[in-house]
Write a structure and sequence with these properties.
Strand content: 15-25%
Structural class: alpha/beta
Number of helices: 5
Radius of gyration: 13 Å
Oligomer: single chain
Strand order of the largest sheet: 1-2-3-4-5
Order of helices and strands: EEHEHEHEHH
Number of strands: 5
Largest sheet: 5 strands, mixed
């Protein structure tokens, strides 16, 4: 479900390698919580392999965000698929989750958040896209 790409202390970069639906969301939840239990406070998720995520998958992402937020960490999503980004915007997820269009940008955002140079939120994503 989650394929670890890179780990740097409390920052982990992972890809969602399978579609996330009612039947697979518990696997994502387990893998995500395992990473957080292992000391991850900044999690970057690459959604580029996804072709589908349903409400149960979104619920897992929000639960991971909540746990990281409570630990003064962050969840940053790399969502290169414009259609998926639009659906997340329509659901209002862009007001809670940090969403970027590219993995490199997501990793940079997570590193800045870890360093304390930026706060999470949509405003910064919009600024970085126009820069």
């Amino acid at each position: 479900m989650l394929q670890l790409i890179e780990r740097d202390g409390d920052l982990a970069v992972a890809a969602l390698v399978d579609d996330v639906d009612f039947f697979t969301s518990s696997d994502l939840r387990t893998a995500g919580h395992r990473l957080l239990d292992d000391g991850c406070r900044y999690l970057v998720l690459d959604t580029s392999p996804l072709s589908f995520i349903d409400s149960s998958g979104i619920t897992v992402l929000l639960a991971l965000w909540q746990r990281l937020h409570t630990a003064d960490g962050a969840l940053v999503l790399a969502v290169p698929d414009e259609g998926l980004r639009r659906r997340m915007d329509v659901l209002g997820l862009d007001t809670v989750l940090t969403i970027t269009p590219a993995l490199g940008e997501a990793v940079t955002r997570a590193r800045r958040l870890r360093a304390g140079t930026h706060s999470p939120g949509r405003r910064l994503a919009a600024e970085s896209e126009s820069a």
